[in-house]
């Protein structure tokens, strides 16, 4: 089953509003994702990436088109994916541990059992010593780690990560990228990852989907054939640099030389 499409996005369009003030966010987007793939989505700001995720998450109705997961439409069926946003959105009044296990306790799993499930991941991420701290006592990088673990522990097969590391400094981002890759490989999840950082996409992904400016359409799909584990050094290799240049060229053409997307 490894090559069968797990997720199929089919001619998906979304328009906000009607008449003169209508905004077409995405138009006729189609692609499919085999189970276990790490796919990054890259595109100009405002091209509809978050809208695409809201549609895949079943939180929003498309104007037309469909999203199939494991052969079934997710339209009007939220709760089929784990979803993580750039802002960590941890609950300030709950401890880190209670934030991380939130999805599990909401599913009716006892706190004790949830803690047992979370502990190995918390240890792996260096969060075990902070289990009883409140989020505001932690650095931005640690809060994002906690939000990532909470997303992983929802138990969903498919994870949507919307620019999760965008606000972090370069070193912390690299640490979290490596951690995410390691966890993804161990847990075998299907990950869709929005980023505006071409290097980040190259470092993490099996495939990269490049979107046009708004209304977002698929410009091109790139395969990233680098071996794993990946290292930052690979970004300097000739083939990778050429791939990056191709993507940057396409994006540059999309936004125009005046930079207006
Ligand atoms: P991206 O994540 O690629 O930056 P978004 O999906 O957030 O882009 O937005 C795409 C376009 O859709 C933008 O023009 C935005 O203003 C518009 N948009 C997004 N969500 C809504 C909404 N709920 N109502 C109206 N317009 C929206
Ligand atoms: Mg967005």
3D architecture notes:
With 261 residues, this protein is α/β, with parallel strands linked by helices. The chain folds into 2 domains: 1-81 and 158-172 and 189-261, Rossmann fold; 89-155, no CATH class. The chain contains 8 helices and 10 strands. The protein has helices spanning 49-56, 96-100, 102-106, 111-124, 140-152, 170-187, 198-204, 238-255; strands at 5-16, 23-34, 38-42, 64-69, 72-73, 81-84, 158-162, 190-195, 207-211, 218-223. A 6-stranded mixed beta sheet has the order 6-7-8-3-9-10, sandwiched between helices. α5 packs parallel to α6 (170-187). Bound molecules: adenosine-5'-diphosphate and magnesium ion.
**Mean pLDDT over all positions:** 93
CATH superfamily of the largest domain: P-loop containing nucleotide triphosphate hydrolases
Helix content estimate: 25-40%
Q: Which regions are unreliable across 5 or more consecutive residues at pLDDT < 50?
A: none
Give every kind of bound small molecule, once each: adenosine-5'-diphosphate, magnesium ion
